[in-house]
Amino acid sequence: MSDKQNPYSAPDTGHVWDDTLRELTNQPPRWWMLGFYASLALVVVYVIIYPAIPLVSSHTKGLLDWTSIKEYKEDLAVIEEKRAEFERPLQEMSAAAILADDNLADYVQRSAKVLFGDNCAACHGIEGQGNQGYPVLNDNDWLYGGTIQAIEQSITTGRNGMMPAHPLSEAELNRLADAIIAGNPASEPLFGFPPEGKGCAACHGTDGKGMHALGAANLTDPIWRFVAADQRESVKHTIQHGVNVPGNSQSRNAVMPQFGGGKLSDTEIRKLAVYVHKLGGGQ
Ligand code: HEC
Ligand code: HEC
After folding, report:
1. Ligand 2 contacts CB of residue 238 (under 6 A)
2. Which of 3, 98, 196, 281 is the most buried (most CB within 10 A)?
3. Is there a domain that residue 132 lies in?
């Protein structure tokens, strides 16, 4: 123990380290002690007015009868009531009527993003920008038509484009592919009807601009349903092996699943139709 004197007024506790460091019995400052006692008092107040002590199957309720879950549910009810203003009419209106109502269409455009993300984005992209093998939904090039009715139909029943395989000679495939890549299939006699032609025009139209009723693609524009690095080879492949031809593993696969029949509710389908229409390409 150090023989030096304690120079401070507070008494020594008797603990001394390293011969020099003494522990004194100084009281904390008064303001600090007041704060300490006030916080003890506050704990008691909190226990009285808020839920605090867990019991076997519940807990003390507190005088205010407040819980965070209750506050959350009240806030949610306020939001639901605001939503109901829009959701109620949506139950009865047709997709076309919703689209014609600026307020409702605006609401759907903002609220159906999640629905689209959950059900459609995996194939069509989160902005409807399309994916390898899956058509773009935010442009105005449509296989089956871009009217609100056609879009609703696509979602409700699904789509399944059919094009038969055309086992043609290499020379014939080249002639058709060249005319299509050039954007003018109608100029190629093989495109037309027999005896000279192979009957492509029956589905793709005599002008080659496609046919919505059959989902037959427009062959005069540079927008490709089946995109490939070598687009000319891709076109030849499609002609030779067709689309969705049963039993032909080389055939293009193009299946839009059906969302009607219980997978989504009618209201959800109408919302999605309006949402897709408003992605930019609706007609
Ligand atoms: C499993 C992938 C897949 C999912 C999921 C999917 N689609 Fe499709 N969708 C397709 C394919 C493939 C086509 C093209 C069908 C064809 O070529 O015949 C298509 C076509 C469409 C068309 C027609 C496009 C046109 O050009 O006429 C619309 C509209 C559409 N889908 C909307 C939706 C909506 C809305 C959803 C979500 C509810 C959805 N799709 C979910 C694969 C999918
Ligand atoms: C029975 C109807 C039918 C006939 C006949 C038909 N097609 Fe098609 N064709 C389609 C449909 C439907 C699609 C779109 C498939 C899809 O996306 O669902 C298509 C797609 C295509 C594509 C792909 C276009 C793209 O953007 O990638 C090419 C190329 C094509 N057809 C060329 C032809 C040629 C050439 C012929 C004649 C030798 C022909 N088709 C005959 C229905 C037909």
Report:
1. yes
2. 98
3. yes
What single string gives the DSSP state of each residue in 165-228?
-----HHHHHHHHHHHHTT-GGGSGGGS-TTTS-STHHHH-TTS--BTTTTBPPSSSS--SS--
The rounded distance, in Å, linking the Cα atoms of 276 and 40 is 60
User: What is the domain extent for residue 206?
Assistant: 162-253
Condensed to tens digits (0 to 9), the pLDDT of residues 16-72 reads 888 888 888 888 899 999 999 999 999 999 999 999 999 999 999 999 999 999 999
Regions in the chain scoring below 50 on pLDDT: 1
How many domains is the chain built from? Answer: 3
Residue nearest to atom 7 of ligand 2 (CA): 163
